[in-house]
Design brief:
Elements: H1 2-11, E1 23-26, E2 31-32, H2 35-44, E3 47-52, H3 57-72, E4 77-85, H4 89-97, H5 102-109, H6 115-128, E5 133-137, H7 140-149, H8 159-162, H9 175-184, H10 199-218, E6 226-232, H11 242-249, E7 255-262, E8 276-280
Parallel strand pairs: 3-6, 3-7, 4-5, 4-6, 7-8
Antiparallel strand pairs: 1-2, 1-8
Helix pairs in contact: 3-6, 4-5, 7-10, 10-11
Length: 281
Protein backbone atom coordinates (compact mmCIF):
# COMPACT_ATOMS: atom_id res chain seq x y z
CA UNK A 1 0.00 0.00 0.00
CA UNK A 2 2.90 2.34 0.73
CA UNK A 3 4.41 2.26 -2.76
CA UNK A 4 1.43 3.75 -4.60
CA UNK A 5 1.20 6.43 -1.90
CA UNK A 6 4.83 7.38 -2.41
CA UNK A 7 4.44 7.47 -6.17
CA UNK A 8 1.44 9.76 -5.80
CA UNK A 9 3.36 11.88 -3.34
CA UNK A 10 6.19 12.34 -5.82
CA UNK A 11 3.74 14.00 -8.23
CA UNK A 12 3.10 16.74 -5.67
CA UNK A 13 6.72 17.87 -5.68
CA UNK A 14 7.99 20.71 -7.84
CA UNK A 15 9.99 19.64 -10.85
CA UNK A 16 13.56 20.81 -11.43
CA UNK A 17 15.17 22.28 -8.33
CA UNK A 18 14.70 20.49 -5.01
CA UNK A 19 12.17 21.88 -2.60
CA UNK A 20 13.71 24.18 0.00
CA UNK A 21 11.97 22.63 3.01
CA UNK A 22 11.82 19.00 4.08
CA UNK A 23 8.88 17.07 2.70
CA UNK A 24 6.88 15.46 5.50
CA UNK A 25 4.60 12.48 4.97
CA UNK A 26 2.25 11.23 7.69
CA UNK A 27 2.01 7.47 7.11
CA UNK A 28 -0.80 7.15 9.65
CA UNK A 29 -3.02 9.41 7.55
CA UNK A 30 -1.48 8.45 4.22
CA UNK A 31 -1.08 12.13 3.35
CA UNK A 32 1.45 14.90 2.93
CA UNK A 33 1.87 16.74 6.20
CA UNK A 34 4.08 19.50 7.62
CA UNK A 35 6.93 20.00 10.03
CA UNK A 36 4.59 21.77 12.43
CA UNK A 37 2.25 18.76 12.48
CA UNK A 38 5.23 16.51 13.14
CA UNK A 39 6.39 18.78 15.98
CA UNK A 40 2.90 18.87 17.48
CA UNK A 41 2.78 15.08 17.44
CA UNK A 42 6.23 14.93 19.04
CA UNK A 43 5.08 17.21 21.86
CA UNK A 44 2.27 14.77 22.63
CA UNK A 45 4.58 11.74 22.69
CA UNK A 46 6.54 10.34 25.61
CA UNK A 47 9.39 9.17 23.40
CA UNK A 48 10.30 10.22 19.86
CA UNK A 49 12.67 8.02 17.88
CA UNK A 50 14.43 9.94 15.12
CA UNK A 51 16.08 7.65 12.59
CA UNK A 52 18.76 9.40 10.57
CA UNK A 53 21.53 8.81 8.08
CA UNK A 54 24.50 10.01 10.09
CA UNK A 55 26.03 12.08 7.25
CA UNK A 56 22.77 13.81 6.30
CA UNK A 57 23.03 17.54 7.07
CA UNK A 58 19.32 17.97 6.49
CA UNK A 59 18.56 15.38 9.16
CA UNK A 60 20.64 17.23 11.73
CA UNK A 61 18.91 20.52 10.89
CA UNK A 62 15.54 18.84 11.37
CA UNK A 63 16.65 17.39 14.71
CA UNK A 64 17.67 20.81 15.97
CA UNK A 65 14.38 22.28 14.73
CA UNK A 66 12.57 19.52 16.62
CA UNK A 67 14.34 20.39 19.87
CA UNK A 68 13.56 24.08 19.35
CA UNK A 69 9.91 23.29 18.62
CA UNK A 70 9.56 21.22 21.77
CA UNK A 71 11.12 24.04 23.79
CA UNK A 72 8.67 26.53 22.24
CA UNK A 73 5.80 24.23 23.21
CA UNK A 74 7.02 24.12 26.78
CA UNK A 75 7.89 20.44 26.60
CA UNK A 76 10.93 19.40 28.69
CA UNK A 77 13.25 17.03 26.82
CA UNK A 78 15.68 14.29 27.73
CA UNK A 79 18.03 13.79 24.79
CA UNK A 80 19.26 10.19 24.41
CA UNK A 81 21.95 9.70 21.76
CA UNK A 82 23.31 6.63 20.01
CA UNK A 83 26.39 8.73 19.30
CA UNK A 84 27.69 8.49 22.88
CA UNK A 85 28.42 5.26 24.76
CA UNK A 86 27.32 4.57 28.30
CA UNK A 87 30.73 4.66 29.91
CA UNK A 88 31.22 8.35 28.95
CA UNK A 89 28.10 9.49 30.84
CA UNK A 90 30.16 11.01 33.70
CA UNK A 91 31.94 13.28 31.20
CA UNK A 92 28.62 14.49 29.76
CA UNK A 93 27.19 15.04 33.23
CA UNK A 94 30.21 17.03 34.38
CA UNK A 95 30.00 19.25 31.30
CA UNK A 96 26.28 19.79 31.81
CA UNK A 97 26.89 20.72 35.45
CA UNK A 98 29.55 23.26 34.48
CA UNK A 99 32.35 21.46 36.31
CA UNK A 100 34.35 20.80 33.15
CA UNK A 101 34.99 22.64 29.91
CA UNK A 102 34.11 21.35 26.47
CA UNK A 103 37.63 20.31 25.58
CA UNK A 104 37.84 18.11 28.67
CA UNK A 105 34.46 16.57 27.91
CA UNK A 106 35.39 15.81 24.32
CA UNK A 107 38.70 14.27 25.37
CA UNK A 108 36.78 11.70 27.41
CA UNK A 109 33.54 11.30 25.47
CA UNK A 110 34.94 9.88 22.20
CA UNK A 111 32.71 12.02 19.93
CA UNK A 112 32.09 10.95 16.36
CA UNK A 113 34.16 12.62 13.65
CA UNK A 114 31.20 14.80 12.57
CA UNK A 115 30.38 15.89 16.12
CA UNK A 116 31.38 19.54 15.72
CA UNK A 117 29.13 20.29 12.75
CA UNK A 118 26.28 17.84 13.27
CA UNK A 119 25.82 16.90 16.92
CA UNK A 120 27.39 19.73 18.90
CA UNK A 121 24.49 22.13 18.14
CA UNK A 122 22.05 19.56 19.56
CA UNK A 123 24.03 18.94 22.73
CA UNK A 124 24.63 22.65 23.30
CA UNK A 125 20.96 23.49 22.80
CA UNK A 126 20.01 20.85 25.38
CA UNK A 127 22.73 22.02 27.77
CA UNK A 128 21.61 25.66 27.57
CA UNK A 129 18.13 24.60 28.69
CA UNK A 130 19.29 22.26 31.42
CA UNK A 131 17.99 19.21 29.56
CA UNK A 132 19.79 15.94 30.36
CA UNK A 133 21.88 14.39 27.60
CA UNK A 134 22.14 10.61 27.90
CA UNK A 135 24.85 8.42 26.41
CA UNK A 136 22.59 5.60 25.31
CA UNK A 137 24.76 3.14 23.40
CA UNK A 138 26.75 0.11 24.46
CA UNK A 139 30.54 0.76 24.46
CA UNK A 140 32.07 -0.30 21.18
CA UNK A 141 34.58 -2.76 22.71
CA UNK A 142 31.69 -4.69 24.24
CA UNK A 143 29.74 -4.70 20.97
CA UNK A 144 32.85 -5.97 19.18
CA UNK A 145 33.34 -8.66 21.81
CA UNK A 146 29.77 -9.88 21.27
CA UNK A 147 30.30 -9.88 17.49
CA UNK A 148 33.29 -12.19 17.99
CA UNK A 149 32.10 -14.39 20.86
CA UNK A 150 28.33 -13.96 21.15
CA UNK A 151 26.18 -12.67 24.00
CA UNK A 152 27.52 -15.19 26.58
CA UNK A 153 30.79 -13.21 26.54
CA UNK A 154 29.09 -10.47 28.57
CA UNK A 155 28.67 -12.79 31.54
CA UNK A 156 32.44 -13.14 31.84
CA UNK A 157 32.88 -9.42 32.54
CA UNK A 158 33.37 -7.74 35.92
CA UNK A 159 30.07 -6.28 37.24
CA UNK A 160 30.99 -2.65 36.53
CA UNK A 161 31.83 -3.40 32.91
CA UNK A 162 28.82 -5.69 32.50
CA UNK A 163 26.58 -2.82 33.62
CA UNK A 164 27.56 -0.84 30.51
CA UNK A 165 25.24 -3.13 28.50
CA UNK A 166 21.54 -3.80 28.96
CA UNK A 167 20.63 -6.06 31.86
CA UNK A 168 18.38 -8.28 29.73
CA UNK A 169 18.32 -9.32 26.09
CA UNK A 170 15.82 -10.83 23.70
CA UNK A 171 17.46 -11.56 20.36
CA UNK A 172 15.11 -14.16 18.97
CA UNK A 173 14.18 -14.78 15.36
CA UNK A 174 11.70 -12.37 13.83
CA UNK A 175 11.22 -9.54 11.37
CA UNK A 176 14.15 -7.48 12.66
CA UNK A 177 16.60 -10.38 12.51
CA UNK A 178 15.41 -11.23 8.99
CA UNK A 179 15.87 -7.60 7.95
CA UNK A 180 19.35 -7.46 9.48
CA UNK A 181 20.49 -10.69 7.82
CA UNK A 182 19.13 -9.53 4.47
CA UNK A 183 21.08 -6.28 4.84
CA UNK A 184 24.30 -7.93 5.98
CA UNK A 185 24.06 -11.15 3.98
CA UNK A 186 26.31 -9.99 1.11
CA UNK A 187 29.18 -9.68 3.61
CA UNK A 188 29.22 -13.46 3.90
CA UNK A 189 30.49 -13.65 0.35
CA UNK A 190 33.55 -11.47 0.95
CA UNK A 191 36.94 -13.12 1.19
CA UNK A 192 37.62 -16.80 1.66
CA UNK A 193 35.62 -19.26 3.66
CA UNK A 194 37.54 -18.58 6.85
CA UNK A 195 36.95 -14.84 6.48
CA UNK A 196 33.15 -15.08 6.39
CA UNK A 197 31.64 -13.32 9.39
CA UNK A 198 29.32 -15.09 11.79
CA UNK A 199 26.12 -13.25 10.99
CA UNK A 200 24.32 -14.71 14.00
CA UNK A 201 26.87 -13.16 16.34
CA UNK A 202 26.82 -9.94 14.36
CA UNK A 203 23.08 -9.82 14.87
CA UNK A 204 23.58 -10.40 18.60
CA UNK A 205 25.93 -7.39 18.61
CA UNK A 206 23.29 -5.32 16.80
CA UNK A 207 20.69 -6.56 19.25
CA UNK A 208 22.93 -5.57 22.17
CA UNK A 209 23.08 -2.01 20.85
CA UNK A 210 19.30 -1.83 20.50
CA UNK A 211 18.65 -3.40 23.91
CA UNK A 212 21.10 -1.04 25.60
CA UNK A 213 19.67 2.05 23.91
CA UNK A 214 16.12 0.92 24.70
CA UNK A 215 17.00 0.40 28.35
CA UNK A 216 18.70 3.80 28.46
CA UNK A 217 15.61 5.51 27.04
CA UNK A 218 13.07 3.55 29.08
CA UNK A 219 14.81 4.50 32.31
CA UNK A 220 14.35 8.21 31.47
CA UNK A 221 10.64 8.23 30.70
CA UNK A 222 8.95 10.73 33.00
CA UNK A 223 5.43 12.21 33.04
CA UNK A 224 5.23 15.49 31.12
CA UNK A 225 8.61 14.95 29.46
CA UNK A 226 9.58 13.88 25.95
CA UNK A 227 12.54 11.58 25.44
CA UNK A 228 14.09 12.35 22.04
CA UNK A 229 16.13 9.35 20.95
CA UNK A 230 18.56 9.94 18.08
CA UNK A 231 19.77 6.88 16.21
CA UNK A 232 20.60 5.51 12.80
CA UNK A 233 17.44 4.83 10.82
CA UNK A 234 17.98 1.06 10.74
CA UNK A 235 17.66 0.93 14.53
CA UNK A 236 14.09 2.29 14.53
CA UNK A 237 12.56 2.03 11.05
CA UNK A 238 9.27 0.13 10.85
CA UNK A 239 9.03 0.25 14.64
CA UNK A 240 11.63 -2.51 14.94
CA UNK A 241 14.96 -2.62 16.75
CA UNK A 242 15.21 -0.15 19.59
CA UNK A 243 11.51 0.76 19.33
CA UNK A 244 10.13 -2.73 19.92
CA UNK A 245 12.64 -3.25 22.72
CA UNK A 246 11.56 -0.08 24.50
CA UNK A 247 7.91 -1.11 24.10
CA UNK A 248 8.72 -4.45 25.71
CA UNK A 249 10.03 -2.59 28.75
CA UNK A 250 7.38 0.13 28.78
CA UNK A 251 4.37 -1.12 26.80
CA UNK A 252 2.27 1.84 27.87
CA UNK A 253 4.71 4.43 26.47
CA UNK A 254 3.39 6.69 23.72
CA UNK A 255 6.09 6.40 21.06
CA UNK A 256 6.47 8.30 17.79
CA UNK A 257 8.81 7.03 15.07
CA UNK A 258 10.28 9.52 12.61
CA UNK A 259 12.28 8.20 9.66
CA UNK A 260 14.45 10.69 7.77
CA UNK A 261 15.33 9.91 4.17
CA UNK A 262 17.94 11.68 2.09
CA UNK A 263 16.89 13.71 -0.92
CA UNK A 264 13.77 15.72 -1.66
CA UNK A 265 12.19 13.13 -3.95
CA UNK A 266 10.26 10.26 -2.35
CA UNK A 267 11.16 6.88 -3.80
CA UNK A 268 9.23 3.61 -3.64
CA UNK A 269 12.47 1.86 -2.65
CA UNK A 270 12.39 3.64 0.71
CA UNK A 271 10.99 0.59 2.47
CA UNK A 272 11.68 1.50 6.11
CA UNK A 273 9.05 3.89 7.37
CA UNK A 274 7.88 5.49 10.60
CA UNK A 275 4.81 7.35 11.77
CA UNK A 276 6.30 10.30 9.87
CA UNK A 277 8.73 10.03 6.97
CA UNK A 278 10.74 13.12 6.11
CA UNK A 279 12.68 13.71 2.89
CA UNK A 280 15.38 16.30 3.48
CA UNK A 281 16.44 18.62 0.64
Amino acid sequence: MIRPLLLALALLLPTGAAAADPLVFDTRRGAVSSQEALFDAAARAEVVFVGEFHDDKGAHRLELDLLKALAERGRPVILVMEMFERDVQPALDAYAAGSGDEARMLAKARPWSNYKDDYRPLLEFARERGWPVVAGNIPRPLASKIARQGLPALETLPPAERAQAAATFQCADGAYRDKFLAEMGPMAGHGGKAAKPDLSRMFESQCAKDETMAESAAARLLPGTTVVHLNGAFHSDEGLGVVERLKRRRPEAQALVVSIAKGATPTPSRRALGDFVVWTP
